[in-house]
Amino acid sequence: MEDWHNNSEWTPQKRCEEVSSRFQEAYDNGSLQYIGNGWENNQPVICTAREKGDDCVTTLMTLRPKDDPIKMTQNMVNLLRGRATGVIRHSATEKSTQYFEIDFDKFLQVAPVEDDTPLD
């Protein structure tokens, strides 16, 4: 789902597992209603919130400083809504905050099942 190439410690498989774990945490703590963007430790992040405009509850993905958090969040939402396929690519422009409401129960009902083949 995410495409980063500049950190050899984080293989695509490890990144996928970490982001998947964070989605599960957000689902378990009930904060997966809204996906937005914010800041954590001076880094832009994609995160979940229980209400539109609330602070981040669970960080899903840490972005690079030059990434456009709104575009990255929109890319993730489009992927989750089935409007896009492939990986989320990083891109940079101005920064601000935007929230998107996601019906994850509906998403989980129609999401394709993937095999357990490791990513390279």
Low-confidence stretches: 1-5
Number of domains: 1
Number of helices: 3
Which class best fits the helix and strand makeup? Answer: alpha+beta
Summarize the amount of helix as a percent range.
25-40%
Mean pLDDT: 76
The spatial strand order of the largest sheet comes to 3-2-1-4
Percentage beta strand: 15-25%
Subunit arrangement of the protein: single chain
H and E string: HEEEHEH
Main beta-sheet annotation: 4 strands, antiparallel
Q: Give the C-alpha Rg.
A: 14 Å
InterPro entries: COP23
Keywords:
four-stranded antiparallel β-sheet, 120 residues, alpha+beta, 30% helix, 18% strand, disordered N terminus
Descriptive notes:
By secondary structure, this protein is an alpha+beta fold. It has one domain (12-107). Helices cover 30% and strands 18% of the residues. It contains three helices and four strands, in the order αβββαβα. The chain has helices at residues 12-28, 69-80, 104-110, and strands spanning 34-40, 43-49, 58-62, 100-101. Strands 3-2-1-4 form a four-stranded antiparallel β-sheet. It is globular. The model is unreliable at 1-5 (pLDDT under 50). InterPro entries: COP23.
Could you provide a short overview of the structure?
30% of the residues lie in helices and 18% in strands.
Q: In terms of topology, how is this protein built?
A:
Elements lengths: L11 H17 L5 E7 L2 E7 L8 E5 L6 H12 L19 E2 L2 H7 L10
